[in-house]
Amino acid sequence: MEIARKKWSFRANEKLSKDITVTVRGTLSLLQENTNKEDERPILQLSHGDPAAYPLFRTCLKAENAVVHALQSAQFNTYSSFIGILPARRAVAEYLSINLPYKISPDDVYMTLGCSQAMEVIITVLASSGANILLPKPGYPNHEARCSFSQLEVRHYDLIPDKGWDVDLDALERLVDENTVAILIINPGNPCGNVFSFEHLNKIAETARKLGILVISDEVYDTLTFGDNPFVPMATFGSIVPVITLGSISKKWAVPGWRVGWLVTCDPTGTLQKSGITECIKACLNIDCDPVTFVQAALPQILKNTEGEFFLRVVKALKQGSEILYDRIKEIPCITCPIKPQGSVFAMVQLDLSLLEGIDDDVEFCFKLAKEESVIILPGVKVGMKNWVRVCFAVEPSVLEDGLQRIKSFCLRHAKSH
């Protein structure tokens, strides 16, 4: 007797089946596919912030040795505690407390799979019914994608190019209602290469206190600064407003593949504890994955023993790259960089499409550039700025020079004749 087959009842999650180009990786993957396979020149990636791809930015030997020693000790092949092993949390607390007016406790530190997971955790924690969050424009699209997946409404506040990409605080206040839970800042800035001054961060803290919202500070680029403004951790203002600090060793040590980061509650007044946020962070991590245990075990030695010369070398290379980018862009008539980058590994560059023939927007600019010159940069619309592009300068100087020369050739070839 033949049994009637029931109709299949499973289906894909609609939130995951949307256009993958909402993320940086999805967009860059399509650009990579669009390059001319017959072009014998190497494809130049001036898009993705991964300095580890270049020998110039290889991490220091002491960091590598710390990981090797932890692995070979055979003491860290076990599962980690879901909030991270105590030596790692203690090391991060000591590392972040150096420049603060108060001490962070190891109990304030939660180890994560890089800064991205730290962001996923705090978004999940804050995504109560009807809540909204303030994200910067331009910003990092993966933050927005995670908010969308968690059904946390996003409201964008503007960074002002002519003011060094400072936050438009007056306009920001008009975005806030009783359901606004937090403002996210990225400092040093991705994608703008800006570094907020002490005074501006203080204004952000005072504004957040006035509005009754917490501040989430993505500080993955930490002290990678080379301009007039030194890096100031947002936690400096923890007595004014509760701060969630997100960080990792991915960028500063050029080891994004090691996947170890942290979420830290910087809250000397205890506001987050009273509101139940800290317990929800623990609950979220309890059902999530942990960073590799032996890399966590190596973290105290990495944070404590890395010589200052290593960071000086990295910052010098980044400064050189930012200067090459800023100077060469001046030679290309149709693009401008409003400020010389002050930190991180990116700059935002504005297109003047009125000077180009047959290119309607930044997306078309980037796809044609990939096809004709095998150079990949990120369309600005993907970070919230139509007819801009994001360029990474954390590459070998020769690669950067070559890439910018190809961009110049592309622009001259498509320039309108007068």
Architecture overview:
The structure is a single chain. The protein is an alpha/beta fold. Helix content is 37%, strand content 15%. It is built from 13 helices and 14 strands. The strands form three sheets. The protein has an eight-stranded mixed sheet with strand order 2-9-8-7-6-3-4-5, sandwiched between helices. Helix 5 (141-149) links the parallel strand 3 (132-137) and strand 4 (153-160). Helix 2 packs antiparallel against helix 10 and helix 4 (114-126) packs across helix 9. The longest helix is centred in the C-terminal third of the chain and has 22 residues, at 308-329. The model has no long low-confidence stretch (mean pLDDT 93).
In brief, what are we looking at here?
This protein is of the alpha/beta class.
SSE class: alpha/beta
- Poorly predicted regions are none
Tally of alpha and pi helices: 13
State the strand order across the main sheet. Answer: 2-9-8-7-6-3-4-5
Beta-strand portion reads 15-25%
The quaternary structure here is: single chain
Could you give the count of β-strands?
14
